[in-house]
Write a structure and sequence with these properties.
It is a single chain. This protein is α+β, with helices and mostly antiparallel strands. It contains five helices and eight strands. It has an eight-stranded mixed beta sheet with strand order 1-2-3-4-5-6-8-7, with helices on both faces. The termini are far apart. The model has no long low-confidence stretch (mean pLDDT 91).
């Protein structure tokens, strides 16, 4: 399973989600709840504790690697993001095929493909470049350390904010799966799928770095 790792940038640090992040998560999600209509976001200390506990359980099971998004300037928790839906293509094909599980020692396995998602940020972090730098750190780790072949992302088709953010990264559209699943509001949702391939990563990285540079110039103006 992918090992926990801390990823550090100029504005943000991604730390493996742990119990000591619970108070910060509860505080970060305490305002502008309407912005979380499409993404599971804990509210209050009890829900934040359960959120972290489930993330730890998912990592032990090898199905996800969740992070707290932490501001480098003041160490405040700004939200969360994660890798999930790991896929492994190494080794001989065995039967029955178990998708998402490595062949051989799971502790040493690194994925060939994964998904980035379950991202949410506090109101104060939106529009600041925090999401861009977080995505850059995750994508760098996936493509340059794990050497994955593909990173996928998805969003409820109604979630225009997330879809625009994904498209701005340079991710390619893989289409919309209609009536794909049930959304948080109980309605049956369609889902927009996106991906970035390893050969596309240098271009995507350049796009993100250019956007981060523009964001820094605007904030310093």
């Amino acid at each position: 399973m992918p090992a926990p790792v801390t990823l550090t940038g100029r504005r943000v640090r991604l730390e493996p989600l742990a119990p000591h992040h619970v108070p910060g998560l509860a505080e970060a999600s305490d305002t502008d709840r309407e912005a979380y209509a499409f993404t599971p976001v804990p509210q209050g200390l009890d829900e934040a504790a359960a959120y972290v506990a489930q993330a730890v359980t998912d990592h032990v099971a090898g199905t996800a690697l969740a992070f707290a998004v932490v501001a480098t300037v003041d160490n405040r928790v700004l939200g969360s993001t994660r890798f999930s839906r790991f896929d492994y293509w190494q080794g001989p094909v065995v039967w029955p095929i178990v998708h998402g599980m490595p062949v051989g020692d799971p502790v040493l396995a690194i994925p060939d493909a994964a998904e980035i998602g379950n991202t949410w940020l506090s109101a104060r972090a939106r529009g600041t470049g925090i999401n861009l730098e977080s995505k850059l750190l995750l994508l760098q780790h996936a493509f340059e350390v794990w050497r994955v072949r593909r990173i996928a992302m998805r969003a409820d088709v109604r979630n225009l904010r997330s879809r625009i953010a994904i498209e701005r990264l340079g991710a390619a559209s893989d289409g919309v799966r209609r009536a794909h699943s049930r959304g948080l509001d109980g309605e049956v949702r369609s889902t927009a799928f996106y991906s970035i391939l390893d050969e596309e990563w240098p271009g995507v990285r350049g796009t993100i770095e250019q956007q981060l540079a523009s964001s820094s110039r605007l904030q310093n103006a």
